[in-house]
Amino acid sequence: MSPAALTVTSTSTATTTNEPTPSPLPIHSSSKSQSAAPRPHPKPGLPTCKLRIECHDLTHDGAQIFFSNNQVSRDLASAVSMALSVLYKPSQSNSHIPPVRSITLILRAMETLAYTTGSELDNDHKELHFSLNYIEKLVPKPQYRVKDEIQGVLVHEMVHCWQWYAHGSAPSGLTEGIADFVRLKAGLAPPHWQKEKSKEWDAGYQHTGYFLDWIEGLYGEGSIRRVNEALMNKKYDEETFWTNLLGKHVQELWDDYNKTLPEKEAKESTETEKGSNNKAVTKEHEQKPKDELEKVME
Q1: What phi, psi does 132 have (nearest 5°)?
Q2: With CB atoms counted within 10 Å of each terminal CB, which end of the chain scores lower, N or C?
Q3: What's the pLDDT tens digit per position in 12-60?
Q4: d(CA 197, CA 178)
C-alpha cells in the first residue's frame, strides 16, 4: 500500500471516531500593542431624582388648564434639567450638588403663586406648591403664553430645590434673583419683565435676575454658577463674597450695571401681570414660621 493510501486511511479513521478537535493554545505576546485597551471612565452626568405630582382638586379650572397645557413628566424633567445645567457642571461624585432625592409638585388652591420647601420626611425631599388659582387666571392669555408662564414658574421653583443658601444666610433677593436668572436663560421671561434702575441690587426676582445676567455677560459663562457654588459651605459675608469672586464689591457692580440702563424709569407693570414675578412668594415666606423658613433656606 502506498504512503498516500495510508494517509487517507488514517484521516478517515480519525474522522469516524468523532473525537473533539483540541483547541489551539492561546499565543501570549509581550508586545504592548497586543494588550487590551483600557476601558474609558463613564462620562459624569448631572443627578436625577424621583418626580411626583399631587393635585388636590382635579375639578378646579386651574387643574384642567394645567393638564391640558402640559406633558407633566416631560415638563418637570425639563425644568430640573434646566436648573441643574445652569447651576452646575457634573463631576464623578456630584458632591457639590445638593442631594435631592425627590420633588413633589403639589397643585392646590391658594392665594400665593408658588413656593418650595422641604417635605415633612426630610429636606432631601422637596415640595413645590403651585397655585391653581393663579393658573386659572392665565386663561385670557394666548395659549403659548399660558404654557410658557407655567413652565417659567416651574423652572424658577426647581432652582430653589437645587441651589445653595449659604446655610440660610444668603439674601433672599440673591436666591430669588438666581432663580429668575435661570428662567431668563431658559427663554421663559414674561413679556412684562423689564430692566429697571433701583437703589437695591438685591430687590430680587427679575430685577436681580437681569443684574446677574449682566454679570454673566461681563465676566463670562459660568460666573453665576460660581456665585451659587460659593454659597455652599460658608455663611454669606457681603463685604468679601463678591470681591473674592469677581474682584469688586457688589454695590460697585450694581452701580456699573445701572449705568448701562436708560435714565427714564420704565412704566410699572399692570396688576394682572405682576403676579408672574412671584412677589407673592415673599408674602408666603413671611407668613411661614421661622423654623420652617430656615428649613426652606438650608
Answers
A1: -70, -30
A2: N
A3: 444 444 566 666 655 555 555 555 666 666 788 999 999 999 999 999 9
A4: 18
Output the pTM of the full model: 0.76
Write the DSSP symbol of residue 186: T
Contacts of 273 (CB under 8 A, 6+ apart): 190, 192
Determine which helix (DSSP H) or strand (DSSP E) holds 129, and give its type and residue range: strand 125-131
Q: What are the CA-CA distances from residue 269 to residues 35, 265, 272, 281 (Å)?
A: 69, 12, 8, 18
Residues 6+ apart with CB under 8 A from 94: 44, 46, 47, 88
Reported as a single tens digit per residue, the pLDDT across 237-283 is 999 999 999 999 999 999 999 999 987 644 444 444 444 444 444 33
In sequence order, what are the residues at sequence separation of 6 or more whose Cβ sits closer than 8 angstroms to the Cβ of residue 280? 111, 112, 113
| H or E segment and range at residue 107 | strand 102-108
Q: Mean pLDDT across the chain, nearest whole number? A: 83
Q: CA 186 to CA 66: how far, in whole Å?
A: 20
Nearest in space to 276 (alpha carbons), one of 149, 157, 117: 149
173 touches 208 (CB < 8 A):
yes
Q: Other C-beta atoms within 10 Å of 124: how many? A: 13
107's grid cell = 397643585
Q: Say if CB 82 and CB 182 are below 8 A apart.
A: yes
Distance (Å, whole) CA 101 – CA 49: 5
